[in-house]
Amino acid sequence: MELSHWAGNGQQKARLLLHLTAAAHLGYAIYYDYRYAQLPQLAVELRLEAPIGGKFKYMTFLDGLVQLSYFFLALVYDLTRIRLLRHLRDYALASFVVPLALTVSLTFWTLYWIDRESIYPELLDLVYPNWLNHAMHTFVLVYSLLELCITRHRYPARRRGLAGLGAFMAAYLTWMYFVWLATGIWVYPFLGALHWPLRLVFFVLIIALGFVYYVLGELINFVLWVRPGA
Questions:
Q1: Which of 14, 105, 185, 205 could make an SS bond with 141 (beta carbons 3.0 to 4.6 A apart)?
Q2: Model confidence over 118-130: pLDDT tens digits?
Q3: What are phi and psi of 116, to 5 degrees?
Q4: The predicted structure's pLDDT at residue 125
Q5: What is the dihedral sign for C-alpha 208, 212, 215, 221?
Q6: pLDDT at residue 230 in the model
Q7: What span, in angstroms and rounded, lies between the C-alpha atoms of 160 and 197?
Q8: Helix H or strand E segment including 10
Q9: Distance of alpha carbon 71 from alpha carbon 183, whole angstroms
Q10: Which is more confidently placed, 226 or 151?
């Protein structure tokens, strides 16, 4: 009994530490990104950045806000144990946190490896320090996978979960298209180099991969927490 109680208490402390660490780390990263990691006005004048939307036109920044909101919510639940917060926490992790972290991190680092200038030009090194790059493109995935491994979640019905994720991704693609329509500049430079058929294929691929990542998170959760003997 004492060993079981110690193990359970240890898990609670680990969850609390993860949620506190992730919230503090991502909170500071988002604050720094919004406040200090700004391209000079010359970038807009040279049409390297669209003049509308600010940070909110970038999936990386929006994902950072999603991750921060989740870990703050999880931290509040750890301290209050309000049942409604657990339902919100579980749905948010399933529909947004895990699939968006995988989408942002894997897409960014894949494109970075293929052609850095197409996704993260060297110009950004002047305003975007390396630790911030990893906070927004690497640690979001690390924290979400750790959360899957040390916290039991009840995944929603797959249709409900995918509906939330699909709505988020469709809304972002619509927003990105609006930015291009209003300014003639794509949020991500490589999109401007693609013809419309390839551009549409890329958009469909990103949504499809998001759904695959949702199912992957669901599978990991099942193996760790739901299947008999887990």
A1: 105
A2: 888 887 888 899 9
A3: -55, -40
A4: 87
A5: negative
A6: 56
A7: 30
A8: helix 2-35
A9: 35
A10: 151
Give the closest residue to 211 by CA, choosing from 173, 151, 171, 167.
167
Please give the angle made by the CA atoms of 62, 31 and 52, to the nearest 5 degrees.
50
- Residue 177's Cβ-count burial label (10 Å; 0-12, 13-18, 19+) is middle
Span 139-186, pLDDT tens digits: 999 999 999 999 999 999 999 999 999 999 999 999 999 999 999 999
Helix, strand, coil shares of the chain, percent, nearest 5, are 80, 0, 20
pTM of this structure: 0.93
98 neighbors 214 (Cβ within 8 angstroms): yes
The band of 47, judged by pLDDT with boundaries at 50, 70 and 90, is confident
pLDDT at site 42: 57
Rg (CA), the chain: 19
Q: Which residues contact 212 (CB under 8 A, 6 or more apart)?
A: none
Give the position of tokens 């990893």: 134
State residue 186 phi and psi, 5-degree precision.
-80, 145
Label residues 155-165 b or e (16+ Cβ within 10 Å = b): bbeeeebbebb
What is the token pair recorded at 161? 């979960």
Other Cβ atoms closer than 10 A to 205: 11
From residue 74, give the alpha-carbon distance in Å to each of 27, 65, 98.
14, 14, 14
| Rounded CA separation 70/96 (Å) | 9
Distance, in Å, from the CA atom of 60 to the CA atom of 224, rounded to the nearest integer, reads: 28
Give CA 76 to chain center in angstroms.
20
